[in-house]
Structures are given as C-alpha cells and as structure tokens.
Amino acid sequence: MKRDTIVFGALAGLIGNIPKTIIAWLFHLLGYLEYTFIHIAAGYFVPAKFIDNPVALATGFIADYTNAAFFGIIMYLMLQKTGTDYAVVKGLSFGAFVYLVFYGAFMALDITRASLLTPLPNLLLFFPHIIYGAVTCWFIRRYSGLYNRI
C-alpha cells in the first residue's frame, strides 16, 4: 500500500483530517465557531436552513473527508518530488495555502451557504488547516519510507 501514491496519499490525508475535525468541533462546542468544516462542506449542497440536518452533515462529512484525501495525495506527490526534509514545515505551508484558497477565495465567492460573518471564525479555521497539513506530511514521512529512498 505504501507504494501506491493514490491510496497511501489518500490515507494520509484522511488521518491528517481527524485532528482538524476534532479541533474545529471543539471550537464549535466552545461557541467560537458557528460552523465546522463539515457544516461548511454541507453548505455546498443544501440551503443554509438545512445545514444542521443530520443528512446534510453526513454529506458534509463525506465532502470534507474526500477533499482531505485528495489533498493528501497532492502532499504525497509533493514530498515524493521535493523530499521529506522538513516535511512538517512543508505540511504547515500546504495547510496554510489550502486555508487561503478555501476560506479566502471560495468564501468570498459565496460558493457555500455557510457564512463566516466575523473575523474570529476566519482566523480560528486557520489553525486546524495547518495542523491538517503538518499531520498529513508527518504521517507520510513516518510511514511511507520516502526518507529511505530520497
């Protein structure tokens, strides 16, 4: 499985997404965020009034974890090409880039119906993204064996 770029990269992305999801739900439960990543992803598919619906949240979960798997593949390819030196720093940078694209450009385009109307949620969502990138690249470095081949 380690030699299959798609499968291993997707697995790394899914594992990296677990702490991202936990942190976002903690912020949500503490009242700092109205919407988690799962809510925001659900907002791509349903109107705002249905975002908290369990079926919509299941759809959001699938969408969020599918994106995480896709970006895990991209990060694996990146580490294959650039080497695994400073893999965690590369992951932090990649997570920051994904944050800029998804919560800068896409939120400005109103693609999702989940709206982050204040600066605090926008800032708080940065931290789970960099954790996602760091954990994903750490997992790839630790378990892929790339450091032995580069």
- Would you report the number of β strands? 0
Number of domains: 1
* Average predicted local confidence, pLDDT: 88
Low-pLDDT ranges:
none
Q: C-alpha Rg, in Å?
A: 16 Å
Largest sheet: none
**Helix and strand string, N-terminal first?**
HHHHHHH
Tell me about this structure.
This protein is mostly helical and 150 residues long. Helices cover 74% and strands 0% of the residues. It contains seven helices and no strands. The radius of gyration is 16 Å and the shape is elongated.
Name a few traits of the molecule.
150 residues, 0% strand
Task: Map the helices and strands.
Elements: H1 5-29, H2 37-42, H3 54-82, H4 87-108, H5 119-124, H6 126-144, H7 146-149
Quick description:
With 150 residues, the protein is an all-alpha fold. Helices cover 74% and strands 0% of the residues. It has seven helices and no strands.
